[in-house]
Amino acid sequence: MTTFEGSPRGSQGAAPVDASWTRSPYPALAADRAGGVLEVNAAAAALFPAALGGARLDDVVPAWLAQAHRRVTSGGAPGGRAGAERGRHGDLTLEAHPTVGENGEVVWWLVDDTDRLLAETALHDERERTAFLAEASTRLLASLNVDRCMEAVVGIAAEHLADAAVLVAPAAGKRHPMAATVRGGSVVRTAARIDPAAVPGLAEALRGFPPVPSRWIDPAALPDWAVPDGLDGPVGSVVVTPLPGLGVPAGALVLLRRGENAAFGASEEVFARIFAARAGVALSAARLYTEQASITATLMGELLPPELRHVHGVEFAGGYRASRDTERVGGDFYDVHPGASPDQETFAVLGDVCGKGLAAAVLTGKIRNTLQALLPLADDHGKLLRLLNGALITDRHARYATLVLASVRRTGCATHLRLTSAGHPRPLIVRQTGRVEEADTSGTLVGALPEVNARTAEVELRPGETCLLYTDGITEARGGPLGDVMFGEDRLRAALAECAGMPAEAVVERLQMLASEWVGDGPHDDIAVVAITAPYGTRLTAVDGHTPGRCTA
What we know:
12 helices
């Protein structure tokens, strides 16, 4: 018996083995240079029952092991250790470690590596699936647009899970929105009247019930709408899985494979459900965002200041800037309600509600709606303010506000205004000469005290003259060269004086520009301004050809 050196694993240096290797718990067998079996231990005999002394390796062991023996005996160094070999034997994966003797005989130590390889494969597959789900989640959540999200779902599913995919969304009326694609093709979106019961499990999936196993679905019985155009060949297998959403199902996903491809396994169906769960969340988030955006747009339409224009021969212009650039509404507001005819007054209001942001905008909406309901009483500013004050006092959630009311009527070349301030900065009037006056009106704010008192001032505007209604956001705006100086009333009056004779829109644009330059990027309150300008109308030129003549309106 030749003496061999080495051991199955972890051996350092040469150690005599003698015949003790035959008692090793590892399967081991010895073979000569010609490939004849010299001896096997009990573990190897159980693994290779035909491997007896004198047998040929080619006849009793897997081909990969016999080939490895030839490589080792033809090039292996005597008395040394060659590299390990690996191969299959039935359901087992074996790792073979050779130890070469002095005369070229080889002892093969065999280790069952099946469980380790299965664990490594499972770990590798799980890592790939985790990476896929992470990438899929990123792609699915990249857009809150429902259509683009549907396209992403079927695109990812066809690329990684099947040969084709069809997404059926909950019915919108009598039609089901759908998206379908074939791997490598473009996504087709439709909305069609379909019968979900035509696909086994689809009607249940749309209601959020668990999927039907693929083996229960006959691919040949699928309706035409369930098979995307471009899927060549017959459908071999189908999976239908629900898309669970946030509280309500987000739809159902149909996965299809061609006949020549393998059917869906149990683990693949489970993985498809995991993907569908993430897709359902993304779709629900997109639909929720779309609904919220629609609701917000509807509410914003009521809360945003209106676009002002010429009313019965008088120019109206308004400008608004919320306290935060990311917000569109706030606590300042204005409205203009035209009279039913030119001989009736146009009612304008500008206000400032306590607070900022959306909370203040809610109260703003209530005040605007209440004032609109009280329009028949707009000829009596005092009574209108008392009724509004009573409505705010009885609402425990309401806060106080300051207002300035203006009733405007044009007669001939003159424009008559009735102005009433309720705790608000007094309106400013700029005359044709550039002189700035303050309307003689004052009053208490509304929504704070049981009683509200106010004094109304009457003002007449000649052609080219403007009455400015404004909130204290513009006068209290801090900025300037030092960064913390208020814009102040003096600067506002000086700026308004420069606007003498300008149209209402130009006055508003000029004041907004100056306020924005003053504030810069610094914080500020809501700012609102409304300009009411008496237009020049048609003029007759004086005999000298230069000075304005009589207004003919």
